[in-house]
Amino acid sequence: MLGALKTQSTQGFSLLELLVVLAISSILMALALPAYQHAVIRARRTEGQVALWQLLQQQERFYTQANSYQAFSASATEPEARQFKWWSGSGASNSAYEIEGKACDGEAINQCVQLIATPGTSRVDGRFRDKDCQQLILTSRGKQSATGREERCWP
């Protein structure tokens, strides 16, 4: 008879245990997600900065040959302007920034060029936003600026 009164062992988790695990993981996720998003924005911003410096070097090489800088953009049709990459990453569709080169404010293109990186346009990754910096700007005079809060945008 004693053999017939075997206790049944339960296997698995109770509903309460599952809810506790779900609550803890939700809290951890809520804490980690903003930090992750901030890290992604900083990495994409660095991508834009590197592209601006590379393009400025290319502009300086062009200047030594033509005694002028070259204006360029995504819609440029001139052969000289088409040799400048107008996106920041490895390809236009996955880049964070669309880049254009134009004369510095109040100056001619043969005196100064400013490179402007605009985040998340229709020609690049349109989902990317950089609310802190907005546009990154680098001039041939070495001035680094942004249209957002400048103190956080350049190292």
From TrEMBL:
PROSITE patterns: PROKAR_NTER_METHYL. Pfam families: ComP_DUS (PF16732), N_methyl (PF07963). Keywords: Membrane, Transmembrane, Transmembrane helix. It comes from the Bacteria. The chain crosses the membrane at residues 12-36. InterPro entries: N_methyl_site (IPR012902), PilE-like (IPR031982), Pilin-like (IPR045584). Gene3D superfamilies: Glycoprotein, Type 4 Pilin (3.30.700.10). The keyword Membrane applies. This is Prepilin-type N-terminal cleavage/methylation domain-containing protein. It comes from Duganella qianjiadongensis.
